[in-house]
Sequence to fold (170 residues):
Amino acid sequence: MGEARSSGGPLYELTELCDLSTVTPRTVRYYIQQGLLPSPGQFGPGAKYSTGHLNRLKLIRQLQRAHLPLAEIRRRLHPLSDGAVAASLAEEPARTTSSAVDYVRAVLASSAAPSAPAATPRVVLERSQWERVPLDDDVELHVRRPLSRDQNRRVERLLDAARRIFEEEP
Fold:
């Protein structure tokens, strides 16, 4: 295998990473774009991926088999260090459900059970979609939807201010 060694462990080329994680190069690029994977730091043929990238890809696949949407997977992975991802990867198979019906039953059972009030309100995650908001001929703002009510208010204020700025004469 053509892996290189660095002080941080093995480094993989994109094709090697894909072979080891059973995903396509397009999927890796998409996951980087969606914030599920960190950027390798360099793009193109010279890009190298770490064991952390490989572990994150494997954990994403396990969470997908547990029928979690990508938005929820992103929320779970974002705060995790590479060590925490490796630990989650080791324990995750015991927590996954075997079918979609089992997953729905588990979700319904957990929502029916009384629990202590959370410090932050639980947000229902939906599929996200990017909205392009043109501000001028060569300028546009990209907003990932859906947003919370508070985020929507802030974006509207931002758009109002940006439109006023672009309407000003140079």
